[in-house]
């Protein structure tokens, strides 16, 4: 029997489940912020090792995925170009990019569809969306509650969705699905818009974009709805400190478990190596991902791990 997760809504705010209250702990947030400022000065990261030489991506007849950085992917499928959570600049003078985008904004092909997972600043960049809208007028699919924000900035081609709602565009089916997270862009709007993940399906080929999420039973619920998932784009960081991240971000090990729950075939990691969040070293999520992948012996089970470089294009089948 299928078991769908639905968000709870109370007093104009969304919650992951019925008993959740999700209060803001300002003391914890302030402590984490100052720890972050001290920790990031000691980052050691071989950037060149993770940068692809070719920045210009050409459309392919077969499905392809290119990692631009963080949660931003360029996806080609059925002759259309999809961009996920587009962020190409620094978030602020404190939160700067560790690496430049794997594909420069000026080298992007025509964008047909934009998918937004939630409204955090590292996933929904208004200035970037305004430039994309001005150039291409793409269909922009967002969680419930975010449409008014984009329209206020003059972005009109926006549709918003609740979990499990679907939309077909140019022969491609887009399903907005659960994630275990939260939303906020300003001091008083916490959880006033929804968050989630996306499934992209054309014919029988499926690409799952997990957005930003903690580990939860929603992965298993999604697997019940989609009997075959070809590719899962999974967040793997930040990993530390786990006791504070566990309700917002999956660790690398939990991302592997979520991948197994989904019963997907190909794993592509994201949400690492672009901004320094959390207290772990930048490369730690990848190291832990590879270790967990080997421990679970997934390669022997006909699963595939793709550690994409920034700007690298992976063509599937």
Highlighted features:
317 residues, 16 strands, alpha/beta, 7-stranded mixed β-sheet, single chain, 21% helix, 7 helices
Could you please describe the fold and organization of this structure?
It is a single chain. A hairpin with a 2-residue loop joins strand 4 (72-77) and strand 5. The chain has seven helices and 16 strands. It is an alpha/beta fold. It has helices at residues 26-39, 126-136, 147-152, 218-225, 242-245, 252-262, 284-295, and strands spanning 8-10, 13-15, 64-69, 72-77, 80-84, 113-115, 139-143, 158-161, 166-169, 172-177, 197-202, 205-209, 229-235, 264-270, 304-305, 313-315. The model has no long low-confidence stretch (mean pLDDT 88). It is globular and about 50 Å long.
The proportion of residues in beta strands is 15-25%
> Helical element count?
7
**Rough shape?**
globular
Average pLDDT, all residues? 88
Query: What strand order characterises the main sheet?
Result: 8-7-6-5-4-3-16
Per DSSP E runs of 2 or more residues, the count of β-strands stands at 16
Biggest sheet features: 7 strands, mixed
Distance between the termini: 32 Å
Radius of gyration based on Cα positions:
18 Å
**H/E element sequence:** EEHEEEEHEHEEEEEHEHHEHEE
What is shown here, in short?
By secondary structure, this protein is an alpha/beta fold. It is built from seven helices and 16 strands. Helices cover 21% and strands 24% of the residues.
